[in-house]
Hints:
Blueprint: E1 2-6, E2 23-24, E3 27-28, E4 30-34, E5 37-41, H1 45-53, E6 57-65, H2 68-78, E7 86-94, E8 99-109, E9 114-121, E10 127-135, H3 146-149, H4 174-195
Antiparallel strand pairs: 1-6, 2-3, 4-5, 5-10, 6-7, 7-8, 8-9, 9-10
Helix pairs in contact: 2-4
Amino acid sequence: MTVKKMNSFFAGQIFWPAFFFLCLSGSVYAVSTTEGVYEHVHHTREEAIDKIFGNGHRVSSSNFVVSSEQKVAIESKLGWVLTQNEYVIWSVHSEKNTLLGYAIVLHELGKHQPITFLTAVTPSFKVKDFLLLVYREHRGDEVKKRRFRKQFWGLGRDDSMLIDIDIDGITGATISCWSIAEGVKKALLLVEAYSNEIPKNKNDH
């Protein structure tokens, strides 16, 4: 596993060339960048971190390269194969350098297009929250609502997140619900694997 400090939000991420975000003067716009492809930008990454962690924090990013051993362990817990080996993980600290948690942006396939969302993880590797960044379907973005999101709060990697069994799904957004649940589980496992590889600050607990 290799951890390298990154200064750019885009470093280490996989993006689709046709997709662009448009946020002007604090407003969020829906844009179509290619014929037949719809995008609704709900938050930027910075906005999502600020909304979840509040004000008065500092954020640093690292490029996390999953080792072959970590990949096998994560996939065995997920039940499916990781589609990439590199991820950017943000560590969020208070002004007094206390670790507040982590954040990771994932792109999980919805019905037809990827759903881009940020998952925030506590220092004890529980779900703090998740927020949509970009939604690319005309229906199904009800997963952004608090009543759906709060069902994940406090869950850990060993907790079941089956839709309509452990998590109440949303009519008309079933695939999106499953995509979010799978992505949140993946986020927990990736963040914990990353954390196990980095030096611990005495305030990081």
